[in-house]
Amino acid sequence: MLVHASRQRTVGFSCVPVFKVSLVRNSVVMAVEAKDERRRVPVGTKLEDRWQVTKILGEGAFGAVYEVVDADRPGKVFALKVESNADDPEGPPKMLPLEVTVLRALRNIGAKYYPGYESCGQNDKFNYVVMGLVGKNIDSLRKTLPNKRFALRSCLH
Fold first, then answer.
1. What residue segments make up the domains of the chain, in order of their start?
2. d(CA 86, CA 156)
3. Which has the closest alpha carbon to 142: 155, 123, 131, 130?
4. Which of 1, 22, 47, 127 has the fewest CB atoms inside 10 Å of its own CB, making it the most exposed?
């Protein structure tokens, strides 16, 4: 765990909790424990008697992403994103509520090009959202590029 306490700034959005970050050389630094056990979901776990965890796809500062199968639709796979629901003022901000709000809004307007929203919920350890499984994450794609960076044009589209 880290935190540079020189200059702290409070950041928040209307639909997610307020959080504090530290600014160090123009970059945001947050206290994060990379292996947060509260967001671990063992393979084989079943949520809502429907979503069966089959494997972990990735893990980062904000949470983890798993592949899940739908018991109601055999053969259909989805992504399960989880984040710890522990109240940790020095931990990363809770972003899933905002993500769920955006996914629901996109579904409600009939958007075509988004991963899809299936379900969301929480238990005593984590908050989660089930959404469409779309492919590689942005960081993996970035690392395949010759200079390991996206062109400005790609970022703007």
1. 34-156
2. 35
3. 155
4. 1
The CATH number corresponding to 34-156 among 3.40.50.720, 2.40.128.600, 3.30.200.20, 2.40.10.270 equals 3.30.200.20
Report which of 153, 150, 132, 152 is spatially closest to residue 142, judged by C-alpha positions. Answer: 150
The string over 12-35, giving b where at least 16 C-beta atoms fall within 10 Å of a residue's C-beta and e elsewhere, is eeeebeebbbbeeeeeeebbbeee
Q: For residue 65, give the nearest of 54, 44, 81, 52 by alpha carbon.
A: 81
Kindly report the number of other CB atoms within 10 A of residue 63's CB atom: 22
The structure tokens 């084989």 sit at: 44
pLDDT digits (tens, 9 = 90+) for 4-51: 343 444 333 333 333 333 444 333 433 334 445 656 899 999 999 999
Start-end of H helices in 11-151 = 96-108, 138-143
81 is in an annotated binding site: yes
The CA distances from residue 94 to 14, 16, 83, 107, 147, in Å, are: 12, 7, 7, 22, 32
